[in-house]
Amino acid sequence: MTTPSATTAPAGPGGAPDTGAVKARRSLGARVAARAGGGVMRVFLILVGLFWLMPTIGLLLSSLRSPERIASTGWWKIFTAPSELTFDNYSRLLDNSTFTHSLFSTILITVPSTALVVVIGSLAGYAFAWMDFPGRDWWFLLVVGLLVVPVQVALIPVSKLFGEIGIFETTLGVILFHTAFGLPFAIFLLRNFFAEIPRELLEAARLDGAGEIRLFTRVVMPLGGPAIASLGIFQFLWVWNDMLVALIFADSGSPPITVALQQQVRQFGNNIDVLAPGAFISMVIPLAVFFAFQRQFVSGVMAGAVK
User: What are phi and psi of 129, to 5 degrees?
Assistant: First the structure.
């Protein structure tokens, strides 16, 4: 007569495993998962976050040290000698007209590019979601197909086109390029979000006498706020951090900040006292925009996952 193994659940009626043993194993797994999701997991996530932020912390501390200290010791020495902290690098950088002009050029490019994509994308997304017009589905498939077109493919033909119409190496040309390549994703995102709005809500507004413009501004736009905020953050970060398009289409006399920092590296190579504060300033503004709209961004991301 054989005895059942300790690891084998006792058989119930009909040879099925005993549900009591299964529940015991499940409860043990649940307890392990609960403990892992407690303090240990939080400590682990904090360590991962600190490790991920290490380059940013090093960049900030390097920007607050003198060029001599940067050349002689590492940025971590600041913890043993906090008296080395100085804002002289930022003072010199902000007094540099080239840097301030490049920062202004970046804002002048990023804000219109983001606003145009959000406005046009919202209008087109609403049209594709709730308006009937000939070829609507085919036009939407064309928009979706444009998502797979890489930016590099369009650089040469668009450069020739902009040169013929006289907007090559101008701020307007950079804005139009970013707007054109941001619209397919904007339309795709907002159309899918607007399509989830209950039809009954729109029909009730139409029965109250609301036209398409009032319906869009009073009903759809408020409900689509999280998705629009998410789109604005994505577009803002993409345009602000872009260097390829700015390097080709922007005015060489007033380049955006990414190109200006790249030119500093090419000319001087070891001027970390200029590059560190410049790179940190260019990083702070997108971070401020992200944290300002963090709540709307999370709501927009979760709206597509939960019905």
Answer: -85, -40
User: 169: burial class by Cβ within 10 Å (0-12, 13-18, 19+)?
Assistant: middle
Cα–Cα distance list, 221 to 121, 202, 250 (Å): 12, 12, 33
The tens digit of pLDDT for each residue in 156-174 reads 999 999 999 989 989 999 9
For residue 1, give both structure tokens. Answer: 């007569």
- Angle ∠(166,169,170) on CA atoms, nearest 5: 75
pLDDT at residue 217 greater than cutoff 50: yes
- Residue 122's Cβ-count burial label (10 Å; 0-12, 13-18, 19+) is buried
Give the Cα separation of 74 and 62 in Å (integer). Answer: 8
What's the pTM value of the predicted model, to 2 decimals?
Answer: 0.75
Which one-letter amino acid corresponds to residue 71?
A: A
- Cβ(235)–Cβ(113) below 8 Å: yes
